[in-house]
Amino acid sequence: MAIVGRGTAVADLRGIHIAGFWAWLAWLFVHLINLVVFENRVLVLIQWGWYYFRRDRAARLITGDRYTR
After folding, report:
1. How many CB atoms within 10 Å of residue 23?
2. Left (φ > 0), alpha (ψ -120 to 50) or beta: where does 55 sit?
3. In contact, 32 and 44? CB cutoff 8 Å
4. Measured in whole angstroms, how far is the alpha carbon of residue 33 from the centre of its chain?
5. In the chain, what is the straight-line distance between the N-terminal and C-terminal CA atoms, in Å?
6. Which of 16, 24, 43, 48 could form a disulfide with 9 if both were Cys (CB 3.0 to 4.6 A apart)?
């Protein structure tokens, strides 16, 4: 499973290939289910929803290896 863009993902689940919005929802579900405490699931879902609709989340960019010096 991989997120490709906003609301878009790809997934290969035991021979089932899905892409687009449905793969994104599957990614969301799998990651929420793997959280241990129910309260954490709710909080993460609320945070993800907030960031999704507000579009104000800062970008996380990987620009190079900081240990190469």
Report:
1. 21
2. left
3. yes
4. 13
5. 33
6. 24
Distance CA 7, CA 56 (A): 15
Nearest to 21 by CA among 42, 6, 37: 6
pLDDT in tens, 1-40: 888 878 788 988 888 899 998 998 888 888 888 888 888 8
DSSP character string of 2-63: EEEETTEEEEEETTEEEEEHHHHHHHHHHHHHTSSSHHHHHHHHHHHHHHHHH--PPP----
The C-alpha atoms of residue 23 and residue 19 are separated, in whole angstroms, by 5
Q: For 59-69, what is each residue's pLDDT tens digit?
A: 667 777 666 55
